[in-house]
Amino acid sequence: MKKTTSADESKVVMEGLFMKKPSGGNVSRLKSELNSLSKPQGQQSKLPVVPNPESPEDHICLLDCIVVDLQDMDIFAAERYPREYSKAVEDTSTDLSFPSYCVRQTGGSLLKEPFRLKLQVERNLDKELSHAVADILIHGSLSSVHCSLDLPKYKLIRGLLENNLGEPIEEFMRPYDLQDPRIHTVLSGEVYTSMSFLVDMVNVSLELMDPKGKDECSSLARFDFKKSKLLFESSSNRTKSVNLVSHSMMAFDTRYAGQKSTGGMPNVFNCIFQSSKNTSSPGAIQIELHYRSTKDSSSFTVVLNNLRVFLIFDWLLLVHDFLYTPGDTKKRENVLPSRQRTYSSETSVVPKAVKSGVVTKRSSLHVSTEKQLEVKVNVTGTEFVVVEDMSCFDTNAIILKGTTVLTYKPKLLDRPFSGSLFGIEVFSCRLGNEQETALSIIDPVQIQVELVGNASYPSGSGLLDAFNSEDFPPILEIQLQALDIRLSYNDVQLFLAIAKSIPQQTSAAMPDSSASVAESTTNPSSSLVAEPSCLTSENREIPKRVLDPVLEVQLARLQDLGFSMEDCRKALLCCQGDLKKAASWLFKNAEPLKSLSLTSSGRNSQGIVPFQFISGVEIKAESICICFIDDCMDCDVPLAELTFSRLNFLQHLRANPEGCAHFTLSGDYYNRELSGWEPFIEPWPCSVSWQQHASSRLHPSRLKLEVKATHRLDVNITSVFLEQYASTKQSWMEDYCKQDKEVNAVSSEEWMGSSEDSPCFGQTEMKTPKRRQPFVPFALRNHTGCTLWFATLTTTPTRAALSHSGSPGVVPEENGTLLDDAHNVSEWKEVITGEEVPFEFEARGKLRHRHTHDLRIHQLQVRVNGWEEVSPVSVDKVGTFFRYAAPDKNSSSSTLGSPISRTNIIHPQVYFSSLPPVRVVFEVTMEGSARKVITVRSALIVKNKLETPMELRLDSPSAPDKPVVLPAVMPGDAFAIPLHLTSWRLQARPKGLGVFFCKAPIHWTDVQKTAEVCSSKRECHSMESENSRFFRFCVAIKKENYPDYMPSSIFSDSAKQIFRQPGHTIYLLPTVVVCNLLPCELEFYVKGMPISGTLKPGKEVALHTADTSQNIELGVLLENFPICKELLIPPGTQNYMVRMRLYDINKRQLNLTIRIVCRAEGSLKILISAPYWLINKTGLPLIFRQDNAKTDAAGQFEEHELARSLSPLLFCYADKEQPNFCTMRVGKGIHPEGMPGWCQGFSLDGGSGVRALKVIQHGNRPGLIYNIGIDVKKGRGRYIDTCMVTFAPRYLLDNKSSYKLAFVQREFARGQGTSNPDGYISTLPGSSVVFHWPRNDYDQLLCVRLMDVRNCIWSGGFEVNKNNSFHINMRDTLGKCYFLRVEITLQGATYHVAFSDTDQLPPPFRIDNFSKVPIVFNQHGVVEPRLYTEVKPMTSLDYAWDEPSLPPFVMLTVKGAGSSEIVCSMNDFQDSKQLYYENFIYIAATYTFSG
Fold this sequence. Notes:
Blueprint: E1 2-3, E2 11-20, H1 26-34, E3 61-82, E4 95-97, E5 101-109, E6 115-124, E7 136-149, H2 151-165, H3 181-188, E8 193-209, E9 219-235, E10 240-253, E11 271-275, E12 287-293, E13 297-305, E14 307-310, H4 313-323, H5 335-346, E15 347-351, E16 364-368, E17 372-387, E18 396-408, E19 417-430, H6 434-437, E20 439-452, E21 475-488, H7 489-507, H8 510-520, H9 524-545, H10 549-559, H11 565-574, H12 579-589, H13 593-603, E22 616-630, E23 637-652, E24 658-671, E25 676-693, E26 702-708, H14 719-748, H15 762-766, E27 778-783, E28 788-795, H16 797-805, E29 824-825, E30 829-831, E31 836-839, E32 857-864, E33 873-874, E34 879-885, H17 891-894, E35 918-927, E36 931-937, E37 941-944, E38 950-956, E39 959-969, E40 974-976, E41 985-990, E42 1013-1021, E43 1030-1039, H18 1053-1058, E44 1064-1070, E45 1072-1076, E46 1082-1086, E47 1091-1095, E48 1100-1103, E49 1112-1117, E50 1123-1124, E51 1127-1129, E52 1136-1143, E53 1149-1160, E54 1163-1169, E55 1172-1176, E56 1182-1186, H19 1198-1202, E57 1209-1211, E58 1222-1226, E59 1235-1236, E60 1247-1256, E61 1264-1274, ...
Parallel strand pairs: 7-8, 13-17, 14-17, 21-22, 27-36, 37-44, 45-54, 55-62, 63-70
Antiparallel strand pairs: 1-3, 2-3, 3-5, 3-6, 4-5, 6-7, 8-9, 9-10, 10-11, 10-12, 11-14, 12-13, 15-16, 17-18, 18-19, 19-20, 20-21, 22-23, 23-24, 24-25, 25-26, 27-31, 28-29, 28-30, 28-32, 32-33, 34-35, 35-36, 37-40, 38-39, 38-41, 42-43, 43-44, 45-48, 46-47, 46-49, 49-51, 50-52, 52-53, 53-54, ...
Helix pairs in contact: 4-7, 4-8, 9-13, 10-11, 11-12
């Protein structure tokens, strides 16, 4: 309703008659503006200069023009009151009074400020003569209008539109002098515009208020129409068109506008609809809605151009619920019947014509006079954005972008829907830096989507004529050429994060939607939808209460016909269980649920039956390629690729879905070391079919899958493939677990922010989402000692082969015609010595790794300062490559100083007139997961194998007074001699020890044969004269496998003889290394020299002062072994092994093994080990000796008799005359009154076994026996000379159950009942205990009892000396069974007997008694009456063997006297026997007559 503040402000500005030509009229101008998309401006047809009065188009029409300017317009809601009930109010300005009623305003205004409406109305007074101008033209303009709608006002407006403007009205009677425009159009065929209404809208805003907000003024959304036009035209042939064009339309999320809180805004993306950032023309049309309705058809067109839409799901749900809220529901009871009446009045009944075939059912089909509908959606350059974190601007997002044309024609049965998707792509990015971080997930692809009529409904007639086309829904057909999907680790993480955030976003909106649905169920139309859902939920619960399986099957079959459960029950009850009669009764007396659900879902719900409009989905693709990318942590390389070629996929959507697919499968994996793809699945044509079976009484729902192939499936498994799988899995799991720890740490901490912090930026800056680190796949390290320059080169294998062969030479850079895209040379980059520069061959692009399948070779061009540029080197493969570099003849470049003054290296140009030709080595290695490092160095390497840093000194023969000292080489490191200093003399010394450099230089030129090793000794004298200490080390020079060939283009014949190219590795080795391979600490010394020290187990020490050119007498001392026979090591000793004799305090001998390894001439490594380690894990003190020896083994004393030794005992066969066997006994301290005896001898050279250790008791008491397991393992690696002998208890009882258990030998449990005999062992849950048989002469059977269960009796005996798994049965005094699971495994020399609960395990046997009499059964051979068990009729009983050591037979009998006995084998399932018992039948006779 509109009002004005005063009558004077609304005034008519102009009124009168005007003559106007049609060409200059406003209609053509305004129509040309709106139709600018289809027809550019300036192409209007020009009229001739001299008008033709006979032509109606050229007629100059007389117009009645009225200009109305309405100011201070307002819109508000009001209620109508009858006059007699109206009361006087204080503010009379709020009422509109009429004679019989008055109108009173309710609530506030819909507008924030009054607006101005300017209208210009033009009437064509010459419409009887000419229709060149519309009969009525209205042109209005709206500007700066802000309308706010809350939910009650929206309901009111929607009710007005539905019940007033939207209702069908009857055709009014025209006066006889007014001609119907349709008659004129029919007679003349001329169509003209009868009415045109145009409204220009500038800065028009529509705001929706949140109905669930904290206050009534809370806003939900705002739609801004910056520049829009609305045009309505009606023609004389009943054609109407509505066109809404918006040049700038924006939608905002206004829920958090102006919010101030330290927690930050939940959604910082308040602009939901906005123009795309990639818009080329800013003034282009963004949204156009066009509706055109004719007598026979109606079309609706939606155009979206260059829009960016943020999918904020909670906001979209709230706006959807707001807009779909129905209007006032007071008078809507007759809506559905009126629609039905309207439908019935508009349809006619036509009998079905017979074309061909046999028609068994002649039906009258409804021929609808409904209009043809056509819907078109054009989307151009529109982006849909899904963000990971709504509360942060710089967050990760996934963007869907493309151009789409969709057409929907429901009356076209063959192809009702068709769509073309051009350039559809999906990519991920970081919104703060979108252009540089965009990474493609789905490459741009073109997709054709069509709904094709089902082929099972033929066009011809026949029996199928009786069915409607709705009975055969169409198939959704999707066609595409090549679909490339790139899935990386971070992409999957992003998908999971977004999927996890969507329920959190929608959780706030779902209660509101559910509440609105609950309110809408009050109207009858929505209650129709709710009723079937209630019935279906009831149908799911009722069968659970049905006990009769036959009745359940009958009800299920009747429900499949589409009827409710209550109707099916009633039908079976009326028909007394007859299924066929019940079905007939249902069709006569009940209403099926299916039709009700379909009719209701078609109007109010979005489909209760899923996929009811299509019968299947068919996908045809030439190839679908899924590329998996590993971008976890420190890499970004392809991982694997799966390709489905010639894919034909068909999925039927029925009650039991089924489908099939035909394709050729192939798979490749990316070899990172070779930078190439290798196949792991060869191309394999196959066909796959599947079918979903619904659940039934016999089985649950299951999927049947069938694969057919005529070709063999070839799979290639390589070591590289397995290594990459293992490394990738490890890195992914590390990163995933690290994220979980970070999430838990963040969630456990609460951030206490200051109230003065900015609410917009304080929290968003603190939240740092996970960002992808830019991965640079290559790096170059300069170890040449000179400055170098490099450039990257991308070429093809053909060009690389031609350039290496030298046939056409290298393609010159000046000749640009010979260079193509596959031959790109980058700019030269400078690398200072010792620096590392990362680089890449291709800039990081959106379509990542698209060139990995191309045959491209990545090469480096390198130029070292002082030498010419070397030929390109390929760096795709891991390995060592080299090139020869000729000296640079250009003096200007070679005289440049090398900026490496920090290493005190002087450029050799000072001493040489020209530099010598050199060999430049390129070493390509893999660091991290996929980063390739190219190290440029010389071919002369120094490796420091000493324990101290070594300094290197170089001097020139021409200038020995100007030496160069290189940085110290750390222990274990390698250092490349600078490229220009390889021919200088080399000397070395340890750093910081106060010694001079070695006198004799290191000459590598003497070693000329490949793989030849030449070694020599060096001595460094002390700087102090009074200290005569030397530092000695060994130098080993090895020539690597470099070819002797030298190119003549670089080396002249004289240069080949003068300059010998290095290709050597120089090893700096210690002279003597002592390694302790004993389990205890040792002391060493060299007799006659001040060399001594201690050495921890497994450690080694270098003796730098030892002189291997002299005799060395080495001595070794251990704890309790103070005497040693020194070992003499003469000069020139090679590899050999010898024994060293040690003596303990009691003069008992121990032989140690000494292995001497000669690594190079003058470099010895001495390995000290023992022949046997005896490791005691029994918990008992054990004493060892050689078999038949007179004394115990060395190293054993009184304390070994009392307690177990924790450290291993060193053992050897000291007596060579006795056999190499060992024996042992128990220490005397454990049984002081007994006499321990020696066991039978056993070998220590391999295998496992068991020995019984006896202790003889005094008197007639039986002896004690300890069973000890023996496990012998040979040492590996450097412990190869040692055997580890482990002594462990033979039996270990592990209680993994929830009970406290008691154990005892069978003989001691006999007759004990529920009491524990002497000597029993008990364990708590989760603990273990060592077990030894108390008596070896009794049966070695173990019994167990539950100590927590009252009146529990000991179980039967079972063997524990072999691997087994079974249930053990224990009973209480009432005969109730208790089960434990027993697992026996041999680990080393010990049997682990584990006891666990059986709650989650089925029993081994179940006795089912289906007879009418009680059955008594027992295990055959069991004599105790308490183990006879009764099974009552129609019951079942779980059972396990009472005596596992007895044969598996069961004896059965019928309870009572006179029954037969049968014995059944539980291992023979085919055994079937009859059980007989006496049953006395009494026949009672009575009299049949009297008298």
